[in-house]
Structures are given as structure tokens and as C-alpha cells.
Amino acid sequence: MIACQNIRKSYRTGHGRREVLKGISLTVRKGERVALLGRNGAGKSTLIKQIGGVELPDSGKIVRKMTCSWPIGFNGGFQGSLTGFDNARFIARIYGRSYAEMRGFVEDFTELGGALKQPVKTYSSGMRARLAFALSLAIEFDCYLIDEVILVGDQNFQRKCHHELFEKRSDRAMIIASHDMNTILGTCNRGVVISDGFATVHDDLSEAVDAYSRL
Amino acid sequence: MSVLLQSWAIQVRVIKALMLRELSTRFGRENIGFLWVMAEPLLFAVLVGILWRSMKGPFEFGVDIIAFVVTGYIPLVLFRSSLSRAMNSFTANGSLMYHRQIKVLDLLLVRFLIELVGHMMAYLFIAVVLGALGNFPWPYDFGFLLLGWAYYSLFSFAVCLVVAPLSEASEVLEKFLPVTAYLMVPFSGAFFVVSSLSPEAAAIVLYSPPVHGMEMMRYGVFGPSIDPQYDYLYPLQFSLPCMVLGLLLCRTIRRRLVIE
Q1: Measured between beta carbons, which residues in chain B are less than 8 angstroms from residue A70?
Q2: Are A126 and A154 spatial neighbours (Cβ–Cβ below 8 Å)?
Q3: What does the pLDDT average to over B182-210?
Q4: Long-range contacts formed by A160-166: CB under 8 A, 24+ apart
Q5: Do A76 and B25 touch (CB under 8 A)?
Q6: A60 with A111: CB under 8 angstroms?
Q7: What's the CA dihedral at A71, A75, A77, A81 to 10 degrees?
Q8: Distance between CA atoms of A187 and B121, rounded to whole angstroms?
Q9: How many angstroms separate the Cα of B195 from the Cα of each of A102, B71, B198, B202, B211?
Q10: d(Cα A90, Cα A104) in Å, to the nearest integer?
Q11: Contact residues, chain B to chain A, C-beta under 8 Å
């Protein structure tokens, strides 16, 4: 279970502060797939960053009773000047996994071949998405935080992701921020609509999608 | 207890991984790699040593002048470069904050340890070379040499702990800190022995914690002829509260850190 209790987060702007999250509470249990819906700038990524512990909320509490991935997105989690393999090695080390296994999985899943020996900063966003997914799948988390990236990548990658994430790991929890209603409807079972810094939790996904489309 | 051991194991793992990562991003794997960390302090120490030698003759305070400059300069360069490595190190390593087991403190510790090991290696290297040439004595007391290093390093790290979060907090401070580091030079104890100063001046420089470490190091190398002046307690009375303040600041700034 991961529980957010009254999360508030504000950022400093030129003068004063802008409050992005104004008290969000949300509980995600094992195996639940929660869609985060909201317009651009509503605070979806911000909420994911707080849940992942990348940034710390101004107030409120996040209780993590299961292992939780880092937010899987285009940037973050990588060191651009290091190669794909070096990033994999680093991740394997800090999570205490064997690099040999990790390397095999990453090669296999990303199909990036020689590009894995190039610095990550030379990658396209699709390549980054592949690497990010491969690394987090190799570690095995109870809960995956996915920020928009699922749409990136070609057909083949989307199929692979689908297979590895939603079929082989169907028992895992997920929090997915996305604007693609097809993905959301196909994979999630609950929806949270974020607007004006508040979250409305809908246990019925189609209600959430309705609410989102009315925004 | 087992939770504590587990957390300890994670921190050790993280620090090792960060260390290797820092080494490969900073120095690469080509040519001499990590040994580059020695290059800067070596060059500084040798060039300034030669400069002093040509300006002031072969001896200073009764000891070989090059050995005197080197023993003073390398720790000073350690202080300066660990400070500059600490500045902005949180934002520079923002992508690491994606992994919850990595703490900002780990980043600071790793960067400092790399500087420390590099500068100690440079010190050892130059001492061996100068020793072979007859310009560096066999250390009088290794224990004091190491104790001096420990005091000096503790002070440097304590200052890093304060400077790193401050440099993130304010741009004005970020611009001013390098200047302050430069003003530290006369108070580092690198270019004099306290016993050669007037009593008034000596009383003033002894307020500066690194001077005590420096005097211990020099005593360890050159022996009682330089009449070292140091206190065991005073540098700790400065460094330890400074570290506590640094930890508090790190904690506060981490909460405010915005990561892309």
C-alpha cells in the first residue's frame, strides 16, 4: 500500500509561491492501477515526484508499505554523460542487483544494440523511454510510477511494454499519468482527476474519464 | 537492529556506487583516469614550491622550503577544491534524487572523499619524489601527520556541509563563497609556522581551526624544530557544531530542492 495524506506542494515563483498541490490524499493498494488525469500543468508529474520521493512535499505524509519505483519518464534517473550500460551498472549497484542479469535484460528489452555503448544524452526520447522501462523492470518493484512515457516508442515497444508490464506483472500496482484515453481505459482500474490542486478519486474509471473530458 | 544493519548496508552500497560513478564521469576511463585527481594539487604545489625556492632561497623556518610549501599547499588545495566541488552539487546531481536511497549527504561525502584521497595521494607521491631527491625529511611522527590530516579534513568537510546547501539557497552567496574561500588562504596556516609570528598575530591565527591541523601535520613531518602550536579541543569545538548546522541546512534545502 502507498498512502498519500494531505500532500501540499508549492514552488517559488518570481514573487511569492504557486501552490500546485493543495492537499491531496490518495491510497494505492497492491495490484491497483491508478490513472492520473488532468490538464497540462495540473500537477500530475508533481504528484508523481512526491510519491516517488524525488521531491519532498511542503506538508503531508507519504507512507510506503511496498517498494515503489522512481518516476519513469524522459528525464531523471539517468546520467546523460554516461552510456546506457554504465547507467544500468550504476542502477544495479545502488539497488543491489547483479549487473550481469541486468545487462542481459536491458539488451534484450531495449533492442538498442550498439547505442547502449553511447552516452545517454545522444538518445532520442523513444530510446530513453526504452532504457528507463528496461531498468525499472529489471529491478522489480511492487508499484511502478509512470509519467507519460508509455505513448512514446514504436508499435513494437508498446507491445513489449504491454506484455512485460501489464501481462507479466499484472499483480503490481501502477500509477500512470497519461493523456491517452485508450491506454488508460485499457490498463487502469481506478482514476484520479487532478484540477486546481485537488484530487478527486473515482473508483469507476469511466466516471473519471468523463470528469476529465468535462474539464 | 536488523533494520539499522540493513540501512547501513544500503548506504555503503550507495556510497560505493556513487564513488565509482563520480570517478568515471569526472575522469573517464581513458589514459590515467582517476590519477588526474592528483594532477591539480601536484602542479599547484610544485609550481608554488619552485617559485618560493627561487624567491627566498633553500630554507624557510629552518626546513627545506619546497617541502614546507608542499606540506602547506596540498591541504589548502584540498580545502579549496572540496569547497568548489560541494557548491551546487545538489542541483548538478538532481537526476540522482530519483533514487530514494541516495541522500544529499551521500553526494557530499562521496565528492569530499574523492578529493581527500586524491590530495593525500598527491601528498604521498610528492613526498616520496622529494624524499628521493633529498628535499623531504623522513616524517618525525606519522601519528601526528595523520592526526593533522584528520583535523584538517574534518574542518574542510564541515565547511562543505554548510556551503553546499547555502550555495543552493541563494545566488548571492553562490557568487561570494569563492571569494571567501580565497580570503581563507592567510588563515589556513599554509604559509607560516605559528611560532614565527608575533604573539598577537599568533593569537589571532589560532582562532582559525585549520591552522591547528596544519601545525600538527608539520610537526609530524618536520619534528619539534618548528615549535608547533595547536590545541586538540578547539578545532573540534568549531567543526562539530559546524557539521550539525550543515546537516540541518542540508535537510532544509533538500525539502526545497526542485528537480527537473
Answers
A1: 98-100
A2: yes
A3: 91
A4: A160/A109, A161/A133, A164/A109, A164/A133, A164/A137, A165/A133, A165/A137
A5: no
A6: no
A7: 170
A8: 56
A9: 60, 17, 8, 7, 12
A10: 15
A11: 10, 13-14, 16-18, 20-21, 24-25, 94-102, 254-260
pLDDT at residue A202, as a whole number: 93
Cell of A163: 506484455
Res A151: pLDDT: 65
The pLDDT value recorded for residue B30 is: 72
What grid cell was written down for A102?
541486468
User: What is the CB neighbour count within 10 angstroms for residue B238?
Assistant: 18
Residues of chain B neighbouring A71 (CB-CB closer than 8 A) = 98
Q: What residues are paired with A22 via a beta bridge?
A: A8
Whether residue A131 contacts residue A110, with contact meaning beta carbons closer than 8 Å, is answered with yes
Domain ranges of chain B: 35-256
**Dihedral angle at the C-alpha atoms of A170, A128, A108, B23, nearest 10 degrees?**
-120
Q: How many CB atoms lie within 10 A of CB B30?
A: 6
> CB of B75 within 8 A of CB of B149?
yes
DSSP A152: -
| CA atoms of A33 and A144, how far apart (whole Å) | 9
C-beta of residue A199 within 8 angstroms of C-beta of residue A182: no
Place of cell 610537526: B219
- Is A127:A116 a contact under the CB 8 Å cutoff? no
* Residue B258, all three cell numbers: 526542485
DSSP state of A162: I
Q: What is the pLDDT of residue B83?
A: 93
DSSP one-letter code for B138:
P
CA dist., res. A151 & res. A136, Å (int): 17
Q: What pTM did the predictor assign? A: 0.92
What is the rounded distance in angstroms from the CA atom of residue A68 to the CA atom of residue A59? 20
Distance of CA A106 to the CA centre of its chain: 18
**Could you tell me which residues are beta bridge partners of residue A200?**
A193
Place of cell 542481459: A104
- What's B208's DSSP letter? S
Query: Tell me, what amino acid is at B193?
Result: V
Give per-residue pLDDT as tens, B149-179. Answer: 999 999 999 999 999 999 998 888 888 888 8
Chain B residues lying within 8 Å of A91, measured CB to CB:
99
The rounded Cα B220 to chain-centroid distance in angstroms is: 18
